[in-house]
Amino acid sequence: MPFREHIFGRNYRIKIQSEQRDKIFSNLNELMKLYPDAETTEDDIVIKIVDHFDQDIIARNPGSHEETKRGFIIHYSKFSIHYTKSKDNRLECEILPKIQKNVIMRYLKKLNNIQYDSVPGRLAQIITENLLIPSIYFNEDLAPVHSAGIADPEERAILLGGTGGVGKTSLEIELCRNHGCSFINDDISVINGNGQVYSNLAFPKIYGYNLENNDEVKKIIFGTMPLHDKLAWHLKYRFLGPSKVRRKISPDLLYDHILNKKTLLHKYIILMREDVSSISIETVEPHVAANATLQVMKTEYSFFHTHLQWHQYNSELMGRKPIIKVTDVFDRWKTLYFNVFKTIPVYRLIIPLKIDHNTFLQTAAPLILETN
């Protein structure tokens, strides 16, 4: 049975056409069961997990990028993805995982992975980051924001934006576990032109530094973790540091409340580390916030954006129409960001470069909820 879920306001069908079906289903089911079922029998987006591609290659420029009759293929190190548009303009994608057959090499790659995970074991994460989020590039009324998303006790959405490592997930954990907030998403928020935030229920990625002075979350993370997994964690933590080790965990295990419905955005707060002595908050103009948000998203998905440019490059030289242009996407996002941000309060939360982690959480969390 394929998965048929309602995600980001669209109906997704995910079919497993692989010999690794049992392993893939088990991993993917943990994520898909968090989303509501598709509302109709019509599919807006189709994703297939396959063991090989049946498409004829019409161009290969550069070597990691191939053009097909209806789209293009991106070759990542651990998987390849074929993005196409059907005759009725529906997005259809195929993902080909590259699974190491040698047992020793497979374990060494798992040991080297920041999450101590294999390709089948993180396929749900791969699909979210490389198919579900990229699928919204093809939708004119959706845009991603690099932010953690929470809903306050009144179920009003708050986005905590910023670059990686600035404190978004730590505040998400603090607010959802200790301040009565609900989980919406951990890493990428999805908003529409009406200022609503869709749930992105990809498993939160918990780094070593997220566990500082947080024994309750440590118990959840390490509670059912096998001994070899704990050993791998502690070795990486000790020799590489807390930013080089992480684990993912289902949000329904980490939090009491998760939202799987769209929620009206109440405010947007961009976190920044600066050379100051104490935490403060100040307003940001909508056009500044829109431009900053776009710059972060350009960086976060730079590899994918490069391939969109290669697709346009190949298509135009071959006299073909590309199925998507990244410049059009960026223009659309910037307009959507501005139109949404001008209707809500937007702030930047200024955090000292050097601050005790507990002090950061205890000061910033109430400030985020109290600022209107």
Short structural description:
By secondary structure, this protein is α+β, with helices and mostly antiparallel strands. The protein contains 11 helices and 18 strands. Helix content is 36%, strand content 27%.
Ordered list of secondary-structure elements with their pairings:
Blueprint lengths: L2 E5 L2 E8 L3 H12 L12 E6 L6 E4 L4 E4 L2 E5 L3 E7 L5 E7 L5 H10 L10 H13 L6 E10 L5 E5 L6 H11 L3 E4 L2 E5 L3 E3 L6 E3 L7 H8 L4 H14 L5 E3 L2 H4 L8 E12 L5 E4 L2 H15 L1 H16 L8 H16 L4 E7 L4 H14 L2
Parallel strand pairs: 2-3, 3-8, 10-16, 16-18
Antiparallel strand pairs: 1-2, 4-5, 5-6, 6-7, 7-8, 9-10, 9-11, 9-12, 12-13, 13-16, 14-15, 17-18
Architecture overview:
This protein is α+β, with helices and mostly antiparallel strands and 372 residues long. It has three domains: 1-139, no CATH class; 141-204 and 250-372, Rossmann fold (3-Layer(aba) Sandwich), CATH 3.40.50; 215-248, no CATH class. It has eleven helices and 18 strands. Helix 8 (286-300) packs antiparallel against helix 10. The longest helix is centred in the last third of the chain and has 16 residues, at 302-317. The radius of gyration is 21 Å and the shape is globular. The model has no long low-confidence stretch (mean pLDDT 94).
